[in-house]
Specification:
The complex is a heterotrimer. Chain A contains 6 helices and 4 strands; from the N terminus they run αβαβαβαβαα. By secondary structure, chain A is of the alpha/beta class. In chain A, β1, α2 (34-43) and β2 form a beta-alpha-beta unit. In chain B, the strands form 2 sheets. In chain B, strands 1-2-5-4-3 form a 5-stranded mixed β-sheet. Chain B starts with a helix and ends in a 42-residue tail after the last strand. Classes of the chains: A alpha/beta, B alpha/beta, C alpha+beta. Chains in contact: A-B, A-C, B-C. The B-C interface holds B 22-23, 25, 27, 49-53, 55, 57-58, 61-63, 72, 74, 78, 81, 83, 85, 104-106, 108-110, 113, 117, 127, 129-135, 141-142, 148 and C 1-2, 5, 52-53, 56, 58, 60-62, 64-65, 96-97, 99, 221, 223-228, 237, 239, 244-245, 336-341, 350, 352, 354, 356, 358-359, 364-365, 367, 369, 373-374, 376-377, 406-407.
Chain lengths: 173, 165, 407
């Protein structure tokens, strides 16, 4: 008996959009330091990020929806990071890869920003210095789950967040 | 020893030179006023055709130091493989040295870095401006009176929230 | 970069078609964070002004704050595609300052690890150079072998990327038989990958046309601009610290390897020099792993430079006191109050450290002589007069590592 496909199907558009978005994340590799090499290793043949639909690294922020901040961000680089983040179209997510991007790591010095989440929104933190490729892949899987759970077609989940959710910058404390 | 003949020849030409030695490093200490002449003599007469190192140190908290800044030039003779270090002392307020750029083109960025980190000026440098720190930065970070964690410059940026971006 | 720092464009109606292009700091071919401001005449580069500092993280300031063993975790992150080379260079200089003579086993292990690091560095450089020119497969082949080298690092130290494996006067641990097996296996397997990469690229017409005659560096200019390493050797400068100022176990291998040089000085020569150096490194690894001396990896505990073994710390008061003295920040080592420069041949060139010591366990000044910094200053001389598409070819052949460039 042949499979009969109904002429009309009813489904909510949100899960459909989430399913599409979650499985075709196009990363913007904002690779500055050591983590960038592990990001390359994640893309190379052994770990093969393509298995999770996130292998299409686009170096133009206009084509990306996932920013991976891999490596420390310093004073001179932060305005560049913010500009690239604002250039990315909605919906967009951010993974802070490694200890330096998440918190400054071992570089508690005059030049290094102590966590990019002080200045741009971050969805997922990956610990490690640098994280193993498996950890980055896990972060992408977790992010996919998050998108599937919370995403809406219009992206209203972003509009509701008017406040910066990360730890406050020191000068505001 | 190759070093002995070079140092003897230098001492014959520049009487006030002081030389020291530690491990395999041979150092010639010279006043800033004679620095360029010594470098030129080393390059032209003794064949030191590579400037492999140019750096500085702030001796503010160094035990028994009498001068504030020391600038070190590392020279290498590519034909014989002999290395020699030329050192000079500087004190505030006159932090100016002659640029070594006319002798070795490699001095370009090395001098810019020393300027960026210590505020030592190089007279005759073609393009002396900050290289590693942002242009708007006002301090010289490797000086000993500048704290390791800075003076809050790293927190001084606008915050972009979800709703704004 | 302020506007007045840019080169002034020539005046006159015949020159007003010159235009300025910003390249980087976020660009796939800049290999992390470099920025170039190019003045173009059509597609020809008239001037290139590099703007760096986008990864300046204060390494040298940290070196004045952390002791000789702690700072090794920081220098690791300097040239992050061959991390262990930085550790070897740092502790080489520290041991030179203190006058410590290493044990033969430690020298051999450091030599093996250093040469493995050189191979992994050259693999990434050659692979990325090809990747920038559109050849993706060589990059994947190179990364496959890099994973094997990562695995060896993980065997010895537990960290696959930044081993932080050397210590003053020795190593963190002794190596195991598993390490020796893995290195032997690597020596056996690697030539196949190397041959595959060579077959893909060496006679590839697109690769040849994009690299031969591009970015030529003359021998005189290379010396004048303080170039070292593969960059200088591909321009005909015959200098390799492993031969000229042998350190570690290299005096034993003087006949085992050759210094690879080329005369052309273009991007292709740099690629070929790197590819051939990998084979020479493999010979050193092969000779060293088969002649690995027995004995301790750390110098004698009586020298007061190394930590005593854990069991003896638990069981004897003398060892416990020594451990305590090395851990407490106000005791530690007592190096001579002097200044020393020590250098080794890193994959990129002469990697040196200049330490000013004030007699404590923390360097008063820990200056790095970074080959990437010196080599990036060469870039404007290489690119002038070439096409804009050659910018990535020249950048890839210089192997600029941003963290070492900016520190």
């Amino acid at each position: 008996m042949a499979l009969t496909i109904p002429d009309v199907m009813l489904a909510r558009l949100d899960p459909l959009a989430n399913w599409v978005r979650a499985n075709s994340l196009w990363p913007m590799p904002f690779a500055t330091a050591c983590c960038g090499i592990e990001l390359m290793a994640t893309g190379a043949s052994k770990h093969d990020i393509a298995r999770f639909g996130a292998e299409v690294m686009r170096f133009s922020p206009r084509q990306c929806d996932l920013m991976i901040v891999a490596g420390r961000v310093v004073m001179k680089m932060l305005p560049v990071l913010q500009r690239i983040w604002t250039q990315m179209p909605e919906p967009k997510w951010c993974i802070s890869m490694g200890a330096c991007a998440s918190s400054g790591g071992v570089f508690d010095t005059y030049a290094v920003v102590q966590g990019v989440d002080r200045f741009i929104p971050v969805d997922m933190y990956v610990p490690g210095c640098p994280p193993r490729p498996e950890q980055l892949i896990q972060a992408i899987i977790d992010l996919q789950a998050k998108i599937k759970q919370t995403g809406t077609l219009q992206g209203t989940e972003f509009g509701k967040r008017t406040e910066h959710k990360g730890p406050l910058p020191m000068h505001l404390n | 020893m190759a070093h002995d003949t070079i140092i003897a020849a230098l001492k014959a030409k520049f009487a006030e030179l002081v030389t020291t030695e530690f491990r395999d490093n041979f150092r010639v200490v010279v006043a800033p006023a004679r620095l360029f002449d010594v470098l030129q003599s080393l390059k032209d007469e003794h064949g030191f055709n590579m400037l492999f190192e140019l750096t500085a140190a702030d001796y503010l908290k160094y035990p028994k130091a009498t001068d504030r800044f020391g600038v070190v030039y590392g020279l290498l003779n590519m034909a014989t493989g002999v290395r020699i270090f030329v050192k000079t002392w500087l004190n505030e307020p006159d932090l100016t040295l002659p640029s070594a750029f006319p002798l070795w083109k490699g001095a370009d960025w090395l001098e810019r870095e020393v300027y960026d980190m210590y505020g030592i000026l190089f007279d005759g440098h073609p393009d002396l401006r900050r290289i590693l720190m942002p242009e708007a930065f006002t301090s010289f970070p490797l000086r000993k009176d500048y704290p390791l964690r800075g003076r809050g410059e790293r927190h001084n940026f606008a915050v972009i929230t979800r709703a704004e971006s | 970069m302020p506007l007045e720092a840019l080169p002034t464009l020539p005046e006159g109606p015949e020159k007003d078609y010159l235009w300025t292009l910003n390249f980087g700091p976020q660009h796939p071919a800049t290999h992390t964070t470099l920025r170039l401001i190019l003045t173009l005449d059509g597609e020809t580069v008239v001037t290139a002004v590099p703007d760096i500092g986008f990864l300046h993280s204060g390494f040298e300031k940290l070196g004045e704050d952390l002791d000789f063993n702690q700072y090794v975790t920081i220098v690791d992150r300097m040239n992050y595609i061959s991390p262990i080379m930085n550790e070897i260079a740092w502790h080489h200089t520290v041991e030179k300052l203190m006058g410590i003579e290493l044990t033969p086993r430690c020298k051999y292990i450091r030599t093996i690890l250093g040469e493995l690091a050189r191979i992994s560095d050259h693999l990434l450089c050659a692979g990325a150079q090809a990747l920038d020119l559109g050849a993706f497969t060589a990059f994947l082949y190179g990364f496959q072998q890099r994973e094997v080298i990562y695995d060896i690092y993980e065997t010895i130290s537990g960290q696959r990327f930044h081993p932080s494996y050397t210590r003053v006067g020795g190593l963190l641990f002794d190596v195991t038989d598993q390490f020796i097996r893995k290195v032997r296996n690597f020596v056996k397997e690697f030539p196949k990958t190397h041959a595959d990469m060579c077959r893909l690229l060496n006679r590839n017409r697109i690769f040849l046309e994009r690299t031969q005659g591009i970015g030529v560096l003359s021998k005189e200019l290379a010396i004048d601009l303080s170039c070292t390493g593969p960059l200088a050797r591909s321009s005909g400068v015959v200098r390799d610290l492993r031969k000229d100022e042998p350190y570690l176990a290299y005096p034993d291998f003087q006949t085992a390897f050759k210094v690879v040089c080329a005369a052309e000085g273009d991007c292709y020569a740099r690629y070929i020099v790197r590819m051939e150096e990998m084979i020479e490194s493999l010979k050193i690894i092969d000779a060293a792993i088969e002649n690995l001396p027995a004995g301790a990896v750390n110098v004698d505990v009586e020298s007061k430079a190394v930590f005593p073994a854990q069991t003896s710390v638990y069981r004897s008061i003398e060892s416990m006191i020594q451990h305590f003295e090395l851990v407490m920040p106000n005791r530690q080592w007592t190096p001579p109050v002097d200044e020393v420069y020590g250098a080794i041949e890193s994959p990129n060139g002469e990697l040196g450290f200049y330490i000013v010591s004030d007699g404590t366990g923390v360097a008063y000044r820990a200056r790095t002589r970074p080959p990437s910094y010196i080599h990036f200053a060469v870039f404007p001389y290489l690119i002038e007069g070439h096409q804009i598409s050659d910018v990535v070819a020249v950048l890839g052949s210089l192997n600029i590592i941003a963290a070492e460039l900016d520190r």
